[in-house]
Amino acid sequence: MAVFNSLRTDLPLITYETLAKDLIHLFEKQNLTHLPILHNELLVGMLPKESILESTPQDTVASLSYDLERYHVLPNVHWQEALETFGKFDTNILPVTDEKNQYLGYFSLIDFIHLFSETPFLKELGSFIVLERNDIDYSLSEISQIVESNQAKILGAFVSDMTNGKVQITLKIFGGGLSEILQTFRRYGYTIVLQKEDDLYLNQLKENSDYFEKYLTL
Questions:
Q1: Mutual orientation of helices 79-88 and 109-117 as an angle, nearest 10°?
Q2: In the predicted model, is pLDDT for residue 212 greater than 60?
Q3: In the CATH hierarchy, which fold is given to the domain comprising 120-198?
């Protein structure tokens, strides 16, 4: 996916001298969890919204610098790494810098949700399967072999849950006989947690995505 095409550059310059009162409105207008703080065009950190809400209007960013969180990505970041960074720092804004830490802009989490919706995992026709097995026993290569031995292809796969020694793997497959694939998984010791045809599952995913996007814009 063309991640760099999602780069945003619509935020004003925020430095150590910026007043807290000027950032409150910006946080509310942009619906962001953090704002990038710059010094001489270099990114020095990300200021969380909570710090501004707990400050006084005349506080400067410099007086809040101990709250700065430091994370960023490069323009050529892979979308999976970017999503991991969003989650790791519990943020909906990801600053982008060059190799010298010069600030270039930012990625928005909502844009990445839209990017993900354009992947074959969601766009192409197919069937969804959620498998479960002991976390020490499952093998992605084995899962792939089972699917392909039944004349089907995997359009996407990811670990969707790991709890109490169990792991759940969500697959989207295309082609082959779904019943035969499910039977083969059971023979290999996998539990079928969920199996749905494309339309129903996609509608549920869309509803969840719409809710998530609505939540992000509150």
A1: 140
A2: no
A3: Alpha-Beta Plaits (3.30.70)
